[in-house]
Amino acid sequence: MNTIGVSANRLEILQIAKAVAEEKSIDQRIVVEAMQEAIEKAAKAKYGQEHDIRAKIDATTGEQTLWRVQTVVADADLEDESKELRLSEAKRIDSELEIGSELKEELPPFDFGRVAAQTAKQVIMQKVRDAERERQYNEYKDRVGEIINGIVKRVEYGHIIVDLGRAEGIIRRNDGIPRENFQPNDRVRAYLYKVSREVKGPQIFLSRAAPDFMVKLFAQEVPEVYDGVINIRACARDPGSRAKIGVISNDSSIDPVGACVGMRGARVQAVVGELSGEKIDIIPWNYDDATFIVNALQPAEVSKVVLDEEERRVEVVVADDQFPLAIGRRGQNVRLASQLTGWQIDLVTESADSERYQREFQERTDLFMKALDADETLAQLLASEGFETVEEIAFVAPEDFIQIEGFDEDVAAELQERAREFLDRLAAENDAKRRELGVEDEVMELDSMTPAFAVKLGQEGVKTVEDVAGLVPDDITGFREPGPDGKPVWVEGILKKGEMRKDDAQMFIMKARVIAGWIEQDAIEQLIAAQQPEETSTADLTEEERALLALGDLGGADAADAALEELEFDLDALAAEGGDDEAAPKE
Asked: Which residue range or ranges hold the S1 motif domain (predicted)?
């Protein structure tokens, strides 16, 4: 009777382990190991916590074995008699035992008391929960970037808890589409963007507001996007209201906008329906930044674009009647266009642009009248020809003056002489002023230094080479920082915006630091090397581009042109001779 009872027990243990493993979708060995740990804990409670007790459950038969283990140590090294055994005593038990060997003493089976059984149950459940959490983390961490389907389990304070089958995900309030109202048991699709390992289990974060969610929806609805024939290069969203995506086709025969719209708008409407009616502008992406910015501001028509590549800002001029359309409701259109292109867009009306041009034109006219002792007509003529500063007039090639109608060599020479005299007087005045401000002569020896620049440094309290060395580039060029309303505002530096590039300012300061003895000359050389543009890799070039690059390496642009002319000649000669028999037209 006892043997039958034990056999039934063994089978029951294996059946329980198998059932738990299948229910939690974890390995059965993990459940068996948890049971072994529970038995070990219960045995320690019975025989003493100080003992090293180990349990083993055979995964095939379910047979349970319990040992007390002692490690053999040198007689002088004994510290814990419950876990260690002197070598001399071990030799009496088994002569083959050595230092480091383990002596196992099998313990008799015992019945779990109520407390021990409860403790064992807690140990097993904790191990199973840990294994289940690890399985969930490993399963979903590799699915980041996918669209996940689930069922709404509950809604708490605007956060949506989604049942994913084997785990739960959460759509936080700011990751949802505004005004969407989900109820328990509703089906929902969302973008999995993050899985984090937490103490209470993995946190699976989902989003319906992320731009990548829209990109993945288009990949599901548009086969050309899924196959990579059409690329969605950029996406910007105002969730639940409006979005813009930039698309480009790798096949010239396929219209990327038309393919994304679909027959009678079926494809884009499927995405719009999933996003609760969010309007989508599909924009042709372009490698030319100016063209892409113009496209991104659709449906507004753009008159002029001026790029500031250093600050990634662009000034866009639109007609007065197009200005509200370009701005959009509450600035939505220009904001989305800015996010889509990665450029800060400043909108200006044609009338405001014209007023600014007239103001700048008048300022240049007044400057030329004063500097050149010229009448208004001559000063306006110079301004209209594109001259912006007296320096340009003083040092431009005389031939450029002669090309202006009504100008000859004598007029050009006289104007340049007056311009140089004005600059000399101005330099002398600035030099006297910088001395008055206390700017040392050593500062004037720095590269790119002028008397006017020295005056501006002196006005800011920068009077020695050490003072210059202590500056940072932003002190000279200016910088942008968040304003009171959160929008970036320009903070003027020592020089006006555009008078010196940031990398030139950095080089200017570095050279001052070398003179001041703060750094070695090697730092300048390292900075110059870092600023050098990297050579274009031929790995990303097309066959045609590599061929043209090779022609350029062999003999420059002239060699490339000559090679192309020779190729055309060979083709013409081939056509004259009749060419290929199969390609020749039949009479």
From this structure: 145-209
